[in-house]
Please model this.
Amino acid sequence: MIGKIHSLESFGTVDGPGIRFVVFLQGCPMRCLFCHNPDTWDINAPVAYKMTPEELLTEVKRYKNFIQTRGGVTLSGGEPLVQAEFAAEFFELCQKNGIHTALDTSGAIFSDKAKKVLEFTDLVLLDIKTLDDELHEKYTGMTRENNQKFLDYLQEIGKTVWIRHVVVPNYTDFDDKLAALAEYVSRYSVVEKVEILPFHTLGKYKYDRLGIKYPLEGISDLPEERGDNARKYFEKYFKTNR
Model:
């Protein structure tokens, strides 16, 4: 079992609670217009690391003293469920070693293999792109169906969830859309927190380097006041990332 790993971050502070060892796996089926990591899309692209779950755990354990207290390991991407078998085996090893596990996912892949990963996941960081079915397909290249099924399944199994939502000018930065999303996720008792992620253009250079047309040319970073505005809708129901 070999995992294709785009990059590693040993002291992450924004991908789950506490100090975390973050593993960015290669491969993603979505093509989100606002994606700032297009270099993670292709599962067959050259990667920084190829590791077995045991080798990756050995690397993680070098930092165990830092991450074990209120921290842990986060699998991100790309979309980590592209490599679901690797993710499940690695998370199982983490839990056997007393390391908290968090899965950062779009919910785009809903399968028996994905469910197996959840057996060894302590916290799910679930991205919700938009509730607008028509926009979702244009916005991400995929329908919203699996994301809906994924959240429903998390509710069914009682898995703790943090929702993540990127707010993009001209696409999702509308008061009615934000209010509707806040009300929607409030129906799920497993949702513990909502993180509002303001759109930024810091990844634009990667498109240039890869020779890919930047899809949101002309869209500026979300103003700080609009991020604050978005959070107010969710603070009626949840903790947010202020």
Remarks:
- The two ends are 40 Å apart (CA to CA).
- The beta strands are 3-12, 20-25, 49-51, 72-76, 101-105, 123-127, 161-167, 191-198, 239-240.
